[in-house]
Each structure stands twice: as C-alpha cells, then as structure tokens.
Amino acid sequence: MNVLIGLIFCLAFILGAYTSVIPGWLGETMVLGVGFAIAMVVPLIWRKAPKRWVWLVAAAIAGFASFYVQFRTPQPQSDDISKFAPASNVAVQGKLLEPPSLTRSDRARLILEVQGINQQVETSEPQEVFGNAQNETKPKPKVEPKFEQASGNLYVTVALIQATGLRVGQSVEITGRLYLPSGANNPTDFDFKNYLKRQGVFAGLSGRMLIVKDRASAWGEWWIKSRMVRAHVTGAGMPQGALLSSLVLGNRAVDLPTDLKDTFIQAGLAAVLAASGFQVSLLLGAVLLLSRDRSPKQQFIQGCICLFAYAMLTGASPSVLRAVVMGLGSLVGILTQRRSRPIVGLAIAAVILLLYQPLWIWDLGFQFSFLATLGLVATVEPITKRLEWLPPLVAAAVAVPIAAYIWTLPLQLYNFGKISPYSVLANLLTTPLVSFATIGGMISGILGAIFIPFGAAISWFMIPPLHFTIAIAKWTNTLPGAATNVGTISLWQLLVGYGLILMIWLVPWLSKRWILGIVLTLILIFIPNGIARATQLQVTILSAGEVPVMLIQNQGQTILINSGDRQVATFTLLPMLQKVGINQIDWAISTDPQLAFSEGWKTLLDSAMPIKQFRDAGVDVYPKPYQDLIQALSSSNTNIKRLQQGESVEFSPNLKLEVVNASPSILRLVFQDTSWLLFGDTDLKAQQLLVDYSKPDTRKPQDIDPDPKVQQLLAERRKILSNLKSTILFWGGGKLMPEILQAIRPTVAIASANSVVDETVSQIYGIKIRLYWTGKDGAVQWTPENEIQTLKDQQDSRSPI
Fold first, then answer.
1. Are 214 and 201 in contact (CB under 8 A)?
2. Chain centre to alpha carbon of residue 169
3. Which range, of 232-246, 467-481, 784-798, averages the lowest pLDDT?
4. Model confidence at 130, in pLDDT bands (50, 70, 90)?
5. What pLDDT was estimated at residue 791?
6. Contact (CB, 8 A) for 325 and 35
7. Does the pLDDT value for residue 800 go beyond 50?
8. Of the candidates 122, 118, 174, which has an alpha carbon nearest to the alpha carbon of residue 143?
9. What confidence score (pLDDT) does residue 27 get?
10. Does residue 90 have a pLDDT over 50?
C-alpha cells in the first residue's frame, strides 16, 4: 500500500505539471476541485482504494506542481537583451552557455549569457579631410565602445568558421543584427519563439563578427569529449566516425551530416542517434559485470562514478538523466539488497527531473524517453509470452522495439503526423550492430582520451557494423510507404489512445482480448482523420513572404499553386503536407518560373513527394533552373502540360481552374458559387488587361479582329468576369489600380505579402472589403461556407480557457 501511495503522489505531480498550461490560478483551482471530487468518489467505488486523505494530499501535490511549473517559467527581466530589440547593428558581450552546434543552414548556433550591449557600433567607413586644395581620406578616429548593462540569454548564429574552437564559459563579443524571434506563421510551422522561451531566451542575434575575449580553459569535459570524437573519426572516417560518436555520446556531442540524420529519422531509428537509456544500460551493465566480485558498496561507488561521468560528457539531456536516475535506483537496490520496482523508479525519476527543470514536461525528448521506457517495463513481458513460438532470445529482441513503438506511436502522430511502418524491422536488424558498435565506441573513446591512435585503432574495427547500420537505414527508406504521412491526431485521440493502451495493460478482461483493444485504438487514431480528408474542402493561403502559395484540399485531392523557394518548401510546405496527411500532389500549378516561385518543386521531388500532374501557366522563355525542373518532373513520370489562354481544368465537379490570361498569369478558381481571382503578377499591364476585359465591348466592327479564335477568347474572358458572384481577390500585396477593385467587386482581398501598400489598404477599406495579409495575420484558411479564419484566430480559439 505504501508503494501505491507513493506512486499516486508521483503521478499527481506529473499530471499537475501538465495543467500549468492553464494560466493564472485557474489551473490550480481546477486541479484542487477535481482532486476533491476524486477523494469523495473513488473510495466509494473502489473498496481497496487508499483513504481519502491520500487523494486530498495528491490533489494538493498536483496543485503545487501546476504552480511550480508556472513559477519556474522564465520571464524577461527589466534589462533583458530582448528590450533592446530590434536593432540592425549592435555589439553584445557575454559568455557561452552551450558548445556550438550546426544549423541546417550550415551556420554555428550559440547560446550566450549576456553581460552588456553596445547600441552605437562604429562603422569602418573612411572620413574625408579637405586641405591644400587636395582631398585625402583617413579612417575615422576610434571611439571607445560604450556597453550598457544587459542580462538574459541570447540565441546567436554566426559563420561556422568563426565558432570553431569555442568552448563553454568563454567570453566573446559578437556584432550583428538583434531581433525578436517570430512565432508560427502557418498552422504547422515550428514555433521558434515558444521554443526559445522555454529555454529562457527572448531574443536572437544574427552575428556578422565574433571576437574572443579570453582563452578557453586548458581542461574540462570538452577536452575528453573532443579526443573521443577525434579517435572515432580518425579510425572510422566519415560519416561512420561521426555516427560512432553519436552512438556513444549522443547527437549533442557531434554534428552529424544532415542527410545522414534525416536518413535515420525517416527509417524510425532516431533513438539510435540520441544518448539514452540504451547506452546507460550497456555502460552500467559492463561496470557491474566487471565488478561482480566486489562488495555491493564498491559496486555502488563505481556505478555512480560512471553514471555521473557519462551524464557530464553527454550534456545531461532529459533522456540521459532519466536513465541515470533509474540506474542510481538500481544501484541503491544492489547496495540495500532490495528488489527494485521499475514503475515506481520511473515515476520517481520523472518527479526528480521535473523538480530540477519543470519545463521539461513539454520537452519531446523527455516525453518519448519516459513513454518508451514505460512500454518496455509494462509490455515487453506480455509480448514475449505471446511470441513463445520463437526462441526466447529472439522473442525478447522482437518484443523490445514493438513495445517501444506501441507506447510512442500516439505521441508521434500527435506531434508529427508521420509513421515509419518498418521501424520495428529496422530496429530489430540494427540492434545487434548498434550494441556491438556502441560497446566498441566506448572502449575506443576511453582509449582515445588517453592516446588518440589507440582509440582510432579500435574504431577502425567498428567500420563494418557502422557501414551495415547505415545501409539498413537507407534500404528501409527505399521500401514502399517507408515514411507515410497520416496527419496529426487531435488531443482527444491522443488521450483516448493512451487510455486504451493503459486499459489493455491494467484491466485483466481487456488484456485477454488485447487484439480487440489494439483494433479499437487503431480505429480511433486513424479512421477519423481518414474520413475528414475524404470529405474536406479547404483552401489555405500560406505565409511565404511575397510569393502567393495556395494549398487546396479537395475531398482527397491535393492541389498546390506555386511552391515558393527551397526554404519555403523545406520549412513550411513539407511539414504542412506531413501534418495534414498528404503523400502526393495530385495537381501542381506553377504561375511563374522564377526561383522564388518554383524552386520548391524540386525540393518536394527530392523529398519523395510525388507530383502526378504539373501545369505551367508561366512565360514562354524558361530560365535554366526551370528547365532542369521540367526535366526532373519528366524523369519522375509526371504528366506535364502548358496551360493555354482560355483553357479550363476541372479538378472535380465542384472545383475548376480557368486561365483568364497566360502572361502575365491571371487565374480564376471556381468553387460552386465562390470565385478566387489569382494574380500571378500585379504589374499595371496585368491589371489593365483585367479592367479591359470587364468592360463592355464598344469597338467598331472594322476594329474587331476577324479571327474567330480571338473573338471566342475575348468572349470567354468577359463571360468569366461577368459571372463573379462572390469573389475573393488573391495577389502579392503590390499596388492595385482603383479601377481593378471596381471591375472585380471582391468581397474579400487576401495579400500574400509581409506588407501591403498603404494606398491600396485605404482603397480596400474605403469600399468595405475585408482585407487579410499573411505578414500580419499569418496563414489564411477558407471553407465552402465562406468562413475565413486566420492563424491568429485559430491560436486564440485554442486558448486553454
């Protein structure tokens, strides 16, 4: 009973920490109210339940956890560096809090503890001096920099070469552009602002110049770590050496090549790259094996030394600290000669880590680590029993990845909307190789810290298992449906899914009918999203700078107008397609061959996003990159066609595209009674054409072109513009002629731009037209009910209150 009470208190703290998302005292009040209700009801239903005081204390613990997380949430101080942002040219002094790491744009990323800021940075431009009728120049006199007191942490990016050799604790001065981090501008964008906020960072600096103020310390964990990495890379080469260092020290210790990292993530082997319980178990197991003849006290001391040293070398990530705390629990059991309880140890480890850093409650690494471990503790044995037809060793090896996959799948779908169907197979095939390589990497690392050639020699023997591990990951990604976008699930699906998994584990009746429970779980997770996609009709205007990018989801069909550049495709389009469950583009419409509009198509193809139909509505002359794109599309069996003036493309009975003008491109999308008029280019020529088409034909017969095709085309254009019932104007935010608004008579105007010309804004508001632009409102979504909702509106509607 005492163990049960302790477990209830731990779970109350964890659940209470999650209620901190509710602001103010409302969360604590709700927790206390629910806890009081549970204390009154549960003893009446469950006869062997703990007494009421236990539930009341648990409610108080949960309320304290909610308050504690909010209390420990970082807030900017009065002299925080963010108070000086934005600024185009400043110099900031401070100390490095973390070792440099590599961004996807191949720049170095630093976290700086700010000590001062200089807002009056002098430029090095020459100054003219006049004398003796002759002009000469000399440098401006050097002004002593004036640094003001500032505090807080700062996110910094600098050129990679400038950060080479920097160590934690070094003082530096960085000159660059100070900015405030931006939040998500699209429904599935990464919320960079919130991510930094949880680390106590409220401003960023794009650095141009870095000056080191002092030398690095001659000794530290970085020295050992760097020698271990050098031994691995020297012996195994690249990328095997970097992978070996990642297996031993985690991906924080070494910057893996981006393509290699993406290969492992797509194959469902992301856990291999992170230091976690796997490495800690191998390390602790080796220590206990080597010290099996020693006393329990000596085993405890040696085990603690190894655990603390490993945590220091790997950077003390949540997954490592979780494993270290549980490892300490096992050592205490050895010391006291008592049997450890893994579930209780896992709960205690969670509480200890949250007391140390409560914001880890929102850290995905923390969540995945604990869920995977819970799956191993709770599910490996039942799965192994059901695999009794296999040899015991094989059954246990198969049960481990299955258990971890089951318990992490709902959380993975909630956050990413993507599954790796062959993850269990990939983990099963790589586990022996990774285990052997990790042990060899630890040995080579220890020897390398003493003498690098010794470590490099051992690392050389690790090349075959590392090579085959990489080969298996690449092979897995070539299998059909290797990475399937199923779309993110809702919060209720996440909670119900884990509720069913817990019931299969804890309820004997459902445990015996585990197949039924799993089927119900899969139905609740996958079926609602599938039905929604099959019936959904929605238009999304993405926030992509000055480029109009439109994503149309039409009852299972996907239509994409423009792809943006490579950055838009990589950081906006691909995550969105993944999270809404799109695995192919049915129709791709390109309105402009410029790189800013079309470079992303190649990125989509390279990311295994097939394009079935490609329609080009651009100019006659294509630049070389666009010609290469057409060639790549042809090689991927995409149906390519040039849209002609006056042509119509019917996507479905309720949705079609009409080409009002080819160059400059003016397109019209028709959804039943609603029309979208899309300007590919807002120059005066395009606008004047549209104004002319909307006017009655007053030409004399002798002035009319006798060609029947020309007459038919003009008639079609006028027919299109005369049938505009409820029109939405979509353009790039440039200046609009006053006549264009009168000709189109839109009910809504949407600009894909960071800003809109003031004169145009006044004109639109003057004639009572609703105006949205992506730079201010974020992405804009439309449904057939004529409901327009911006990203800001959606964020407000998702408020906890």
1. no
2. 29
3. 784-798
4. very low
5. 79
6. no
7. no
8. 122
9. 77
10. yes
Lowest mean pLDDT among 414-423, 632-641, 789-798: 789-798
Provide the 3-class DSSP secondary structure of residue 362: helix
Structure tokens belonging to residue 623: 């630049």
Q: How far apart are CA 424 and CA 482, in angstroms?
A: 12
Q: Which residue has the tokens 């799993």?
A: 518
Check residue 256 and report its DSSP letter.
-
Structure tokens that stand for 459 in this block: 């690392």
Q: Measured in whole angstroms, how far is the alpha carbon of residue 235 from the centre of its chain? A: 34
DSSP-based three-state secondary structure for 95: strand
What single string gives the DSSP state of each residue in 547-593?
A: S--EEEEETTEEEEE----HHHIIIIIHHHHHHTT---EEEEEES--
What are residue 679's phi and psi, to 5 degrees? -95, 115
Question: Which residue shows structure tokens 């630049």?
Answer: 623
Using the Cα atoms of residue 493, residue 494, residue 499 and residue 504 in order, give the sign of their dihedral: positive
Taking the C-alpha atoms of residue 440 and residue 445, their distance in angstroms, rounded to an integer, is 8
Report the DSSP beta bridge partners of residue 640: 614
**Mean of the pLDDT values across residues 635-651?**
86
Burial of 557 (0-12, 13-18, 19+ CB in 10 A): middle
Ramachandran area for residue 552 (φ above 0: left; ψ -120 to 50: alpha; else beta): beta
Residue 742: partners with Cβ closer than 8 Å, 6 or more residues away:
none
> What are φ and ψ of residue 103, in 5° steps?
-90, 170
Q: Which phi and psi angles does 237 have, rounded to 5°?
A: 75, -170
Q: How far apart are CA 31 and CA 9, in angstroms?
A: 14
CATH topology of domain 536-797: Metallo-beta-lactamase; Chain A (3.60.15)
List the Cα angle 136/141/147 in 5-degree steps: 150
Residues 310-339 have a mean pLDDT of: 85
pTM across the whole model: 0.85
Contact 643, 659 (CB under 8 A): yes
The answer for residues whose C-beta is within 8 angstroms of residue 716's C-beta and 6 or more apart is: 646
Q: Is the peptide bond before 239 cis (omega within 30 degrees of 0)?
A: yes
- The answer to whether the CB of 23 falls within 8 A of the CB of 69 is no
Residue percentage of the chain with pLDDT more than 90 = 28
**Range(s) for CATH 2.40.50.140 in the chain?**
81-122+143-218
Percent of the chain at pLDDT > 70 equals 89
pLDDT tens by residue, 66-88: 999 999 998 998 889 999 988 88
What does the pLDDT read at residue 801? 39
Listed in order, strand segments (DSSP E) in 673-775 are 674-679, 726-731, 748-751, 770-773
Residue 305 corresponds to which tokens in the numbers above? 């030394």
Between the CA atoms of 192, 197, 199 and 200, what dihedral angle is there, to the nearest 10 degrees? 140
Q: Identify residue 687 by its one-letter amino acid code.
A: Q
Domain with CATH 3.60.15.10 in the chain: 536-797
> What is the Cα–Cα distance from 597 to 593, expressed in whole angstroms?
7
- What is the structure's pLDDT at 135? 46
Beta strand ranges found along 147-258 (DSSP E): 148-149, 153-159, 171-179, 201-212
* CA-to-CA separations, 468 to 38, 232, 437, 462, 473, in angstroms, rounded: 54, 17, 11, 10, 9
The Cα diameter of the chain in Å comes to 111
Provide the CATH topology of domain 81-122+143-218.
Answer: OB fold (Dihydrolipoamide Acetyltransferase, E2P) (2.40.50)
| pLDDT above 70: residue 703 | no
Q: Do residues 624 and 643 make contact, with C-beta atoms less than 8 angstroms apart?
A: no
Is the pLDDT at 97 greater than 60, yes or no? yes
Q: Which residues contact 64 (CB under 8 A, 6 or more apart)?
A: 13, 16
pLDDT at res. 726: 59
Among the listed residues 103, 320, 88, 72, the one whose alpha carbon sits nearest the alpha carbon of residue 198: 72
Which tokens belong to 244? 């070996």
Geometric angle at alpha carbon 424, from 420 and 427, rounded to 5°? 105
**3 state DSSP class of 413:** helix
pLDDT above 50 (res 469): yes
